[in-house]
Amino acid sequence: MGDRDELHEEGRFNICTKAGLKTGISKPRSVIHKHGDYHRGVHVWIFAESTQQLLLQKRVDHQHSSSGLWDISSAGHVSAGDTPLITARRGLLEELGVNLPDDAFELLFDFMEERVTYRGRFMDKEFNDVYLVTTLAPIPMEAFTLQGSKVLAVKYISVEEYKHLLVKGHPAYVPYNLDGQYGQLFDIITKRYQDNVVEKILTLQKKLNRYAPVSLDVELTEEDKEVMVLLIQAGRIIDDIFYNQVWYSNASLREWLNQQSQLSEFDMLKWKYYLINKSPWSTLDENEAFVTTADSAMKLFPEATRKVVGWKGVEYKVAFPMLKPPGANFYPPDMDKMAAELLNKAGDLTTSPSLKRFLHSKAKAFLSNDYYDSDIAWMELDSKLDVTIGPYETYEDVLFGYKAAFEAFIGIRDDKATAQLQLFGDHL
């Protein structure tokens, strides 16, 4: 893939180390391939779910390599200053006329490609990020706008047939070693659409069984109940903030899984386990995804391609990575201000001095972003209602451990059990 850009296109690419890390140095494309410097690229595959087909493009005959051969849906080098995702989106638009948003691109894996061509004059050492775009159905041929200088034609081919042709080494197709890293593409797609629903149900049920439901049998005053209603409303706002912090497309997936939850036992299990984890990644399994993009929300994007009579546009699956992203996102602006209003109302209602102080100080903190006073009030809280709400823990920010995620827990103190625990503690 590395030499698919045309001769006259001289861009600058970032140089990588042998481990794929940035060096802070960029060089012109021709120099990189002359010296054999490590750099980055992207592969993008469009996959039609309903027909289990991949989209291939045929390169024009005057390309450096891949001349006249069928190859990846789209590919390109990552230019200096760009990200792989920007490159993936731009490549699809320029080569095929397909313009899709970020959440259509699923990063599957990356792999290292090394090759020497033109009698040693062209050395390609490239780290490629491989993306999958999953559409509900094939995109009509007339919807594509092909880049005439690079792309001769496009076609869909079944995953199994394409795999068979690559294994045979068919001369009409750019070769890929399926025994190596690139075999992951076919393994992922095949496993994702296996029909063994019974096994999937059992696996998900085992995950759910690790959590034990606990019922609380406590008495609340009418005042506490009124305060509780407001706290639950505030907690739901904080929940929405948390969903967005974990993953920017979480809201779409949550709505989709909820809508699908009544269709089958498997759909209901997915929804239940999602509610526990508040994301498609299982906390108890080192944040591995327990669902796949195949289970994800579907979006219609009519403006993705040129219009075709009788066709409503590209319907794609909202993609998410198989491993949880390492850092929490920023929370949406003004949502915490809505929670602040509810906390102030709850603080006005309660007659508990410590709870009143905590709720009012927390509401003020949401507006000022200064949490010191509210944290002190939280530590001094002595109330039937035990409330934790706001940005506390940094577990979601695996990248640096700096950014606190918003969370809300509303507890009800069991005075009898607390007294028993205190008795035990007094004898330690």
TrEMBL record:
Cited InterPro entries: NUDIX_hydrolase-like_dom_sf (IPR015797), NUDIX_hydrolase_dom (IPR000086), Peptidase_M49 (IPR039461)
| PROSITE patterns registered for this protein in UniProt | NUDIX
Extract the CDD domains matched here. Answer: NUDIX_Hydrolase
GO molecular function terms noted in the UniProt entry: dipeptidyl-peptidase activity; metal ion binding
Q: What stretch or stretches form a coiled coil here?
A: none
Annotated keywords: Hydrolase, Metal-binding
Say if the entry is tagged with keyword Metal-binding: yes
Q: Which residues form the Nudix hydrolase domain?
A: 37-179
Q: Which GO terms describe its cellular component?
A: cytoplasm
- Record's PANTHER family? DIPEPTIDYL PEPTIDASE III-RELATED (PTHR23422), NUDIX HYDROLASE-RELATED (PTHR23422:SF14)
Provide the protein name.
Answer: Nudix hydrolase domain-containing protein
Species whose genome carries this gene: Lactuca virosa
